[in-house]
Amino acid sequence: MITYELLHRDKNSDARRGVIHTPHGDIQTPIFMPVGTQATVKSMTPEEVEENGGQIVLGNTYHLYFRPGDELVKKAGGLHSFMNWHKPILTDCGGFQVFSLSELRKIHEEGVEFKSELDGSKHFFSPEKVMEIQENLGADIIMSFDECCPYPSSYEYTKDSMERTTRWAVRCKKSHKTNQALFGIIQGGFYKDLRDKSTQDLIDLDFPGYAIGGISVGEPKEEFLDILRYTTPKMPENKPRYLMGVGSPDYLIEAALAGIDMCDCVLPTRIARNGTAMTSHGKVVVRNATYEHDFTPLDDECDCYTCKNYTKAYIRHLIKCKEILGARLLSIHNIKFLTNLMERVRIEIENDSLVEFSQNFYKKYGYTNENRRK
């Protein structure tokens, strides 16, 4: 199991500084968690992820079930051994694929039938099956099976989905046999009474940690912030709070301000493959022609391997030529940028100055959204 230790509360916001203790090491929070969908953070070695501040990585239950198969991973000694990563691992439950692969699945009370993207074969994910897969994968933290509703969804659909997610959570807990930490996932879409109901029902089940699901799914930012700020204070104070699927700098900072401990997203490596870097002055789309003769680093305030050794012009050349090194260098930079950002966030919380930092950061980064925290 895991435990959460609260170290400090920011006096000017709901932000909190803590440590999550796990069998594979401590996690300093708030934290951004790089996503290793297929048991790898794309284009990076585990050593590079760790060197660039990674404390915990994620694996994807749905995708690992299909390739290479959870039974094979179990034979290898679990994900830690299989991928040579010896720090904490979290595996999701496949709930996001219920949302993202809507054309390839059918939802039933017993679970979800998926049609494989690989060969068209049919596979049934029940809460019990999801527990079995995640137990075979062997992560420190595993997630209960849920449905992530699309945006927008009607009140009736969202209510039915939320209630089914709770019933699935009960079944997950009943079938959970290992000492892995099983988190519950709060649903309820953008209806506050449903968020209240989901939160309380899951608290009654006494999970060792809780996640907010079903936001950051295409809704306007003001709706995201409203539900985030409404739901987070209702989550248990003595357990980790996890916001799923968030990875842009502004959303990470807002999550921390709201009292979230953990966030994850594929964003930093995905945009890297498309030729985009996160920098202290905003996004740099390095594939653009304006950088053809730019012999400066991606970010003059960054201490990553990429910024120490390579220029925008060279990285642009690699991206334009579809050289693998281009995606690698940008991925290294983006992961380092976000882990550096969250390290700074932790320091600002300790100094009760995260609100002031966020205002300065937004101005420097170029955010103009009126809905950011004033």
Explain the overall architecture.
There is one protein chain. This protein has 374 residues and is an alpha/beta fold. Helices cover 41% and strands 18% of the residues. It is built from 15 helices and 16 strands. The strands form four sheets. It has an eight-stranded parallel β-sheet. A three-stranded antiparallel β-sheet has the order 1-2-3. Strand 12, helix 9 and strand 13 (241-243) form a beta-alpha-beta unit. The longest helix has 27 residues, at 324-350. The protein starts with a strand and ends in a 9-residue tail after the last helix.
Total helical elements: 15
Order of strands, widest sheet: 4-14-13-12-11-10-6-5
State the distance separating the first and last CA atoms: 38 Å
Mean pLDDT, to the nearest integer, reads 96
Tell me the Rg in angstroms: 20 Å
In short:
By secondary structure, this protein is of the alpha/beta class.
Write the layout of secondary structure elements.
Layout (H helix, E strand, L loop, with lengths): L2 E7 L6 E7 L2 E5 L1 E4 L11 H6 L5 E3 L1 H6 L3 H6 L3 H4 L6 E3 L3 H6 L4 E3 L4 E4 L6 E4 L1 H11 L3 E3 L11 H21 L5 E6 L5 H14 L4 E3 L8 H11 L9 E3 L5 H10 L3 E4 L1 H7 L2 E4 L2 E4 L19 H5 L2 H9 L3 H27 L3 H12 L9
Parallel strand pairs: 4-14, 5-6, 6-10, 10-11, 11-12, 12-13, 13-14
Antiparallel strand pairs: 1-2, 2-3, 7-8, 8-9, 15-16
